[in-house]
Amino acid sequence: MAKTESLWASKLISSCSWSSSLSESIATSPSSSSAATSAISSSSIISGSESTGKKERDLPPTEAPSFAFAFDIDGVLLHVSKPIPGATETLRFLQEHNIPFILLTNGGGRHESERVADLSQKLGVPLTTSNFVQSHTPFQELVDDLADKTILVTGADADKCRAIAQAYGFKNVVTPADVMAVEPRVWPFETLMEEHYARTSKSLPSPVYEGPDAVVDTKTLGGKLKIDAMFVFNDPRDWALDIQIMVDLLLSQQGYLGTYSPKNGDLSLPNCGWQGDGQPALYFSNADLFWSTGYHLPRFGQGAFQAAIAGIWRRVTGGHELHRRVFGKPSTETYAFAERVLQRHRHELLKELGARHGPGRLGRVYMVGDNPESDIAGANGYQSEVGTEWASVLVKTGVWTPDRAGGEAVLKGQLKPSVITGDVREGVRWALEREGYKGVL
User: Fold this and answer.
1) Are 185 and 306 found together in one domain?
2) Do 60 and 30 meet the contact criterion of CB atoms below 8 Å apart?
């Protein structure tokens, strides 16, 4: 095995070992946030400072490439659970030639270490958390302000989202199932998920305010459940329950569930008082309306859930827009976060490989994706604070194809890629030729 391959293999062993220990700590204790947080600190998902145990002087010097890649996953590297032809060979080529890359996906719902271990197995390529960003990875940067607050989380598996949030460092994490367990009147309809809620619910950190008055003096609510922020980690399954509880909180007094703000609809106030009484901030991890699955047509994603709650909010408030913060591609925040991760990963990789004259400046990043509205628009619209150029490569193996989603007619303005290629290997070949790279993929 080449030295470069040994480096990546040793990184994978480190990452997978941590994944196993983290999974055990989460599974054995509902309140495992401190242990999980400690594990994250040692692994440094954000810093990407994983060690291979090799000394820099033992490694051959290499020239530092001035370019790098960012890859979407679904529809670019994988189709459902199977590698898209050429994907594995492309990643191996980049690793063998010390060309940095990150995986940048709007997927989520599992911890980064778990997802990376799964991707490594499916793609047959050693991967680590140091160059992996999924939709909710940037939520980690919000922990400092909310670590001791109470947050509501939801997603495809809300209880798993709770475990991820606790691993990030959030200490008091509530799910809709927790609320239903103690106050079933919050959604007084027969539910098909009652057994699931009973199995996954946990005790609330504080009791829920039960009325009878909706408008109350909040000074009397000490000790009652107060939600300070709401997070959608990935595509929720029970839209009805989630939307009901989230809208209740958006209408509440200062996040106290079961109350109603007297400022709502007050014409004398900014925004007519809506979301102006200390209600919890609302965070979405991505805005993808569609995503590529095993079905021959794209399926609704988290963006559809976001559109649903925003539409209901407009009806409730008489046409007012829902204030929320959206991460994931194409948001500038996510691309800035991804660039920081890539810069750190590139620095560590090239330092380990003994790059001549240091890593140098990263001049260009090629974003390879299948979705014009997230991958392409995000790369085209992002303005790097350090002057790195982002180019966009659209592949035909996922959400967008010439005969679907409006074809090439929709590829205008921010949606127009630098190039359209058949698949990821063809896209990387184009980029390598553009950079004058002599290696042959």
Assistant:
1) yes
2) no
CA–chain centroid gap for 135, Å, is 1
Per-residue pLDDT tens over the stretch 165-175? 999 999 999 99
Look at residue 28 and tell me if it is in a domain. Answer: yes
423 part of a folded domain: yes
C-alpha 348/C-alpha 199 separation (Å) is 43
Asked if 429 and 402 touch (Cβ cutoff 8 Å), the reply is no
CA-only gyration radius of the chain, Å: 23
pLDDT above 90 (res 355):
no
Supply the range of the domain harboring residue 393.
3-134+330-434
DSSP character for 332? H
CB 393 within 8 A of CB 381: no
Cα–Cα distances in Å, from 45 out to 3, 9, 42, 202, 310? 24, 18, 9, 28, 32
Q: Is the pLDDT of residue 21 over 90?
A: no
Residue range 302-316: mean pLDDT, rounded: 98
Would you put residue 292 in left (φ > 0), alpha (ψ -120 to 50) or beta?
A: beta
The pTM score is 0.82
Name the pLDDT band for 62 (thresholds 50, 70, 90).
low
Other beta carbons less than 10 A from residue 190's beta carbon: 6
Question: In angstroms, rounded to a whole number, what is the distance separating the alpha carbons of residues 314 and 311?
Answer: 5
Asked whether the beta carbons of 25 and 111 are under 8 A apart, the reply is no
DSSP per-residue letters across 99-116:
--EEEE-S--SS-HHHHH
pLDDT, residue 71, reads 99
Classify residue 285: in a domain, yes or no: yes
Q: What is the CATH number of the domain that holds 149?
A: 3.40.50.1000
CA 302 – CA 284 distance, rounded (Å): 8
Indicate if the pLDDT at residue 52 is higher than 80. Answer: no
**Is residue 257 domain-shared with residue 339, that is, in the same domain?**
no
Helix (H) or strand (E) holding 5: helix 3-28
* Model confidence at 143: pLDDT above 80: yes
Give one DSSP letter per residue of 281-314, joined into a string: EEEES---SEE--SSSS-EE-HHHHHHHHHHHHH
Q: What's the token pair of residue 348?
A: 């560590």
Q: How many residues does the chain have?
A: 441
**How far apart (Å, rounded) are the C-alpha atoms in residues 229 and 378?**
26
Number of structural domains in the chain: 2
Whether residues 276 and 335 share a domain: the answer is: no
Please report where in the chains the tokens 């005969």 appear, as a residue: 403
Give yes or no: residues 46 and 190 share one domain. Answer: no
